[in-house]
Amino acid sequence: MKLNKIYSAILLSTLPLTPALAAGLDRSGQSIAAFLQPGNYAEAGISILDPTVKGQSTIKNEALNIDLTDEKINDMAEDYYFPSAAIKVQATDKISLGLLYDQPFGADAIYAPNTDSFGFNGESTKVEVKTHNLTALFGYQPTENWNFYAGPVYQTVKGNVSLRGTAYLLLSGYNIDLKEDDAFGWLAGAAYQIPEIALKAAITYRSEIKHELDTTETSNVYIPSYGIDLRSMTSQTEVVTPQSVNLDFQTGIAKDTLAFANLRWVHWDQFAVSPAALASASKLAKGKAQNLIDYSDDQISATVGVGHKFTSKWSGSASVGWDSGAGNPVTTLGPVEGFWSVGLGGQYSPAENYFIQAGVKYFWLGDATARTGTTDVGEFEDNYALGYGLKIGYRF
Question: How far apart are CA 122 and CA 112, in angstroms?
Answer without folding.
Answer: 9
